[in-house]
Amino acid sequence: MSDHDHTTTHPAVDQALADLTEGEKVWAGLSLGARRQLLDRVRDLTAAHAAEWVAAAVATKRLDSDSPLVGEEWMSGPYAMTTAATALSASLAKLESGTSPLADATFGTAPGGRTTVRALPMNVFDKLLLNGFSADVWLAPGVDRATAQREAGLAQLDPTRTNGVGVVLGAGNITSIAPLDTLYELFAHNRVVALKLNPIMDLMLPVFAKVLGPFIEVGAVRLLTGGADVGAYLTRHRLVDHVHMTGSALTHDAIVFGTGEDGARRKAAGEPLLDKGMTSELGGVSPTIVLPGKWSRADIEFQAEHIATQRLHNGGYNCIAAQVVVLSSQWEQRDEFVAALRAAVDRAPARPAYYPGSDDRVASAAQSYPNAERLGERGGRVLVSGLQPDQFAPLLQTEYFGPVLGVIELPHDGAEFAARAAEAVNEQFVGTLGVNVIAEPGTIDAMGTRFDALLESLRYGTIAVNAWTGVGFLTAAATWGAFPGHTLDDVQSGIGVVHNALLIDRPERTVVRGPFRPSPRSLLHGEKSISPKPPWFVTNRTAARTGRLLTAFAGDPSWTRLPAIFASALRG
Question: CB neighbours of 99 closer than 8 A, spacing ≥ 6?
């Protein structure tokens, strides 16, 4: 950073931080009940302005407004925000009445003597709308039920004790991330928030100003826009006590250590330039492990679409997008599956590469792998397969953040393959945000406790079994973030968690489970799930309508809204 950057002032930033310093006093004086009322207003405003939110997202991403892909913007935008506000409000109501947010929680156990907390389903509507899906938060080893109940509530256990001004550097990819991170700072950490939008998201400013209006009015939130210069000025400001960001490890290190040779020297010496606390969510290379088993043709095609979705949702611009599929070279159906995967990636609906630098990143993947296949319209997607182990490295170490999917194969079968795959994704892949495991239910049953041991061995913040880790992102009560233990000088997928509407202290990870087959095939094979093809699949034909109906339901849940949702979902 040059001296010039230190002397440049940004009056709008100075004013916002001065406002927040005053606003912190107002926030400290607000009771839990008053805070809950603000949160309920935010939920209502999100529902009221949901169509405007989605329209701004569609314009940002240059989508066709009639495309089923617009469903992604409903689900990962106002739906996520509405469900989060509702769940957080319920936690505050419990604290207000003198009980724990976990007072009525469903507890369970996980390997290693761990205690778990159910995050999905939380009620009868969850059971109906996401039938067959579940999510459990695994607590850190040694945290028992009584401890978890006592500690839940985090900073809201003493609302009068505030923790200064927090900066949130918003993400440029999923529209709900910035407002959700703002809620987490306000409630989990009891900090007032200066939210700076990523410039990609500038079109979202008017709707965010409306939705977050109740917090802005009391001086607890201020919204800022601008480039990296504004971000740098903000994070270094004397009135700022903490920084939270979503983005890349490169940006993280620039904030913590500075840039250029001086930044590299500071990082090597472990001497941060940043003199305040920092939390982060930074992505990585996410694996999908496919356990070999006996699959029908329909299973192969459905799971190929599932993995294509894990990669291509939001065009591939997700921190949690699957980038590498780990297969057994001894699986008899390997070739058939790779062919189905190639077809699914090729056929997925076309969309603009809206995220800056996408074409360059895709080109660099093709350069590293000259034999890669170019798929989709205009060859904008890359599939890398047929690799020898000494060719894996770039694919496992570079987050391409775009439509690049790789397939690697390990020469093992059965339980030995599962163990070696876990070893590979733990030791060779960069990042720990999320991992997907796909396995036919009979394969899981046959593994017995070895399957539980496999899950325990995976050092990832979210593990999804026959689901996509993105379901964990969409689950308000689940935790979202890297596996615990990263440090500022080796940050990987980040430090800390967000979402966590139950305000759980010391979570370790979230484990999501879903049905291997959609209904009605699930029922024919003895799986207890009536869910059809999920609305987040990139191939879902009614995703936009289903997403809109689900968002309206989240804003005002009632039985009368369910038939239309089911009818739309079944046509997907």
Answer: none
Alpha carbon distance 354, 295 (integer Å): 37
Q: Are strands 479-481 and 497-499 parallel, antiparallel or unpaired?
A: antiparallel
CB atoms within 10 A of CB 476: 28
Peptide bond into 520 cis (omega under 30): yes
Rounded Cα distance, 211 and 223, in Å: 12
Burial of 160 (0-12, 13-18, 19+ CB in 10 A): exposed
CB 382 within 8 A of CB 362: yes
Q: Pick from 132, 395, 130, 164: which is nearest to 285 by CA?
A: 395
Three-state SS at 221: strand
Phi-psi label, residue 154: left if phi above 0, alpha if psi -120 to 50, beta otherwise: left
pLDDT digits (tens, 9 = 90+) for 49-89: 999 999 999 999 999 999 999 999 999 999 999 999 999 99
- Among 452, 429, 446, smallest CA distance to 437 is for 452
Half-sphere exposure at residue 460, Cβ-oriented, CA atoms within 13 angstroms: 33
Whether residue 551 contacts residue 47, with contact meaning beta carbons closer than 8 Å, is answered with: yes
**Residue 313 · residue 463 · CB < 8 Å:** no
pLDDT digits (tens, 9 = 90+) for 371-381: 999 999 889 99
Question: Taking the model in full, what pTM does it have?
Answer: 0.97
- DSSP for residue 437: E
Question: Quick one: CA torsion of 484, 492, 119, 184, rounded to 10 degrees?
Answer: 90
Spans of the chain, pLDDT less than 70:
1-7
Q: In what order do the strands lie in the sheet with 322-328?
A: 107-110, 114-120, 134-139, 507-513, 462-465, 434-438, 286-290, 322-328, 404-410, 381-384, 373-375
Pairing type for strands 381-384 and 373-375 reads antiparallel
